[in-house]
Design goal:
The complex is a heterodimer. By secondary structure, chain A is mainly β. Chain A is 0% helix and 50% strand. Chain A has strands spanning 5-7, 10-13, 19-24, 31-37, 44-50, 53-57, 65-68, 75-79, 88-95, 102-103, 107-111. The chains are: A mainly beta, B mainly beta.
């Protein structure tokens, strides 16, 4: 039973560079979520997809952030012109019903 | 105002003892769901237990149970017979109405002592 996978697991980038993360949900799950978690805090919601449609987007998701889910399978989260404040763990989750969400291992981003 | 409050930043518990992790929530929506997740040092968020606002009975999953007190707006997690592997961060989260996002507490760091 394959869980949610995320790549890369770690990313170090210089300020101003663009980065892209990928999330592969559990295959039968049509709902996909992105969260951001900074050290010592609970996750913060970023965006939500049902199939390929992006249905909800947090105001935390500035213009520098964009997420896609072409064909309703995997999803990508891109951050343009990264800033040091973007350093965090980026978590992806998926679900088949709006109840429990199953999380991937996360991508840890460090912006230097 | 905080929607999810976890008042215990850290807890030490002796192995094999039961432990209660506190969570209070704030919502005016009559339909909501409450979740507990465990996050070990490896970072992966692991779903533990779910309680719906209309569920009549407290949720249980193995050694985990949720003490749901609706009038007090509390949803405490009880872990029976704690094990060393239970050492982790524990997060309480809520979904309100038809919103899809989860709103999270700040977490409680649980350390089980041998």
């Amino acid at each position: 039973d394959t869980g949610v996978s995320q790549n890369p697991r770690h990313k170090i980038t210089k300020r101003g560079q663009n980065v892209t993360f990928r999330c592969d949900p559990i295959s039968e799950h049509n709902r996909l979520y992105w969260y951001r978690q900074t050290l010592g805090q609970g996750p913060e919601f970023l965006t939500y997809f049902q199939n390929e449609a992006q249905l909800e987007k947090s105001r935390l998701l500035s213009d520098r952030f964009s997420a896609e889910r072409p064909k309703g399978s995997f999803s990508t989260l891109e951050i343009q012109r990264t800033e040091q404040g973007d350093s965090a763990m980026y978590l992806c989750a998926s679900s088949s019903v709006p109840y429990e969400q199953y999380f991937g291992p996360g991508t840890r981003l460090t912006v230097t | 105002a905080q929607k999810i409050t976890q008042t215990q930043p850290g807890m030490f518990v002796q192995e094999k003892e039961a432990v209660t992790l506190d969570c209070t929530y704030d919502t005016s929506d009559p339909s909501y769901g409450l979740f507990w997740y465990k996050q070990p040092s490896s970072g992966e968020m692991i779903f533990l237990i779910y309680q719906g606002s209309y569920d009549q009975q407290n949720a249980t999953e193995g050694r985990y149970s949720l003490n749901f007190q609706k009038a007090r707006k509390s949803a405490n997690l009880v872990i029976s017979a704690s094990q060393l592997g239970d050492s982790a961060m524990y997060f309480c989260a809520m979904r309100e109405g038809s919103n899809y996002q989860l709103i999270w507490g700040a977490g409680t760091k649980l350390i089980i002592k041998p």
